[in-house]
Automatic annotation (TrEMBL):
PANTHER family on file: MEMBRANE-ASSOCIATED GUANYLATE KINASE MAGUK
Positions of transmembrane segments: none
Family affiliation: Belongs to the MAGUK family.
Name this polypeptide is given: MAGUK p55 subfamily member 7-like
Amino acid sequence: MTAIMSHTPIGDPALTGLVQRLEQAKNQLDSDDEDFGFLAELLRSRGLQALVQVHSKVNSAKKSMQPVMSNAEDMAIALMKEIHFKNIPSADAIELFAILQSCHLQGVLQSHDSIASKDFSPHLPDIPTEVDEDEETVKIVQLVKSHDPMGATIKQDEQTGAIVIARILHGGAADRSGLIHVGDEVHEVNGHYVVGSTPAHVLQILMEAEGTITFKLVPAGSSAHLRESKVRVRAYFDYDPKQDKHIPCKEAGLSFSKRDILHIVAQDDPFWWQARREGDRSMRAGLIPSRQLQERRIAAQRAEGKAKAKAKSPGGCAPSSATRVKMIHYDAAESEEFDREEVATYEEVARLYPRPGLPRPVVLIGPPGVGRNELKRRLVAIDPDKFRSPVPMTSRPPRPGEVDGRDYQFVDRSKLHELAEAGQLVEHGEYKGHMYGTPLEDVRTLVNAGYVVIVNPHYQALKYLRCAELKPYVIFIEPPPLALLKESRAAAHATSTFDADTTRPFTEEELKKMLKSSQRIQYHYSHCFDEVIVNDVLSSAFTRLMDAIQRLESEPLWVPASWVQ
Ligand SMILES: Nc1ncnc2c1ncn2[C@@H]1O[C@H](COP(=O)(O)OP(=O)(O)OP(=O)(O)O)[C@@H](O)[C@H]1O
């Protein structure tokens, strides 16, 4: 009540008016003093006044409001990097790092950037005033034709024969107009009546049109509004829509290369997803084959490969189909261990930020003899307080000078068997009647103690190591081409690892074997690799490895989405 009587000045005229009206109403209405008091207090409250002020400011500035940047997210990452590399960051810097790292702030920055990079112009000319008599059921939409296609595909409805909008590409001209929806019937394009004609005819009109294109559309019963998904995937194959005979519209396709990160914006069509290349702020999404479609294609390619191999088989007597397919790519003897059934198309990914005190283990994969041990040894030697490698177990007795726990953990064969049975060994094997193995638990212990764990297991160990718990960074160490491989190994007097009992150089045959094995591993496991380092000149390969580890500690990197959720 007192609040009404005491006239504290109110800045906003609308609020002042409301308070005055309230006073008048109070005299006319038979209502509770308490209610009026409450309302008056609310209208005079500083909070509401501030809100109204902000609203008025935003309203008046609306026309001139322009985003100053569209890469706030990149800036935040750059800032985080800068803080990370500071020797002794201040408490404020550490707090800022934590704020920038929070997923909520990242979400806000991401939304800001998408809004900021949207271009809502160009301005369209006025819509013609003459419209159909049945104007309630017809809408006229104008789009400006530019180098960007209209951002929609059309098809002929199988039942009615009408030309309808088949899909709207996210961010394309049609999507941005907000006026065209899936299922809308196209009646006219630039004054050409197209009811009863074919999609090809409509496309012809569109191609010939210049400047503004005017559509007369009958809206779909329920407009299927598109909601943009947040899914990111890593592609495991190259795709060129121009080479794809089955894509509904080649111009609407999105080309990409193996390992590209794609932002999937729509998955409503089981065969054709819509996607943008991550970081590509271009307006329009493009069509890409869905996972289901791509898996079918790979299966069909394999079946075709099998059939061809069968046809070629001498004397018409084909070997077992599984072996035959392997022989197309490799010699069968060495391929038995590969899992032929795995079809890598897309993997859902998310960004993983470096976790202070919990470094990701580094897994070096590669063909035998390529130099993984050498690289690991150099890392541990350069900084033993930072890099550690688990000590393997063996069932063989210690040799003179060998120390238990330093060179090997000397254990009973039964212990190694037990761990192997329980799937608790990263890798294990038999050599000259003795068992060897690296316990998974030892990797865990070192990671939790804050060490950057370096392991160089057999590629099949990826099955155990590549998991959400350990979140490893997998680097494939690749041999250089044969000439350079021969030259570099000879110059360094490299010792062959193919024969453990002698210290002789690699033979040419062994180097060729290394290259072949490298191709095989890459063919089957490249979807597990985060990076490939060519071990040509040892010192450069080592520098690249150190750079990779530094990135790992300072940058958010893409990992399987399940590791982050
Ligand atoms: N870039 C290089 N140039 C010259 N020599 C190299 C290079 N990388 C490694 N070597 C040498 O090649 C030999 C084999 O390397 P290393 O033992 O590290 O192979 P590896 O990949 O661990 O093999 P395996 O998996 O069979 O144990 C060693 O003598 C090593 O010093």
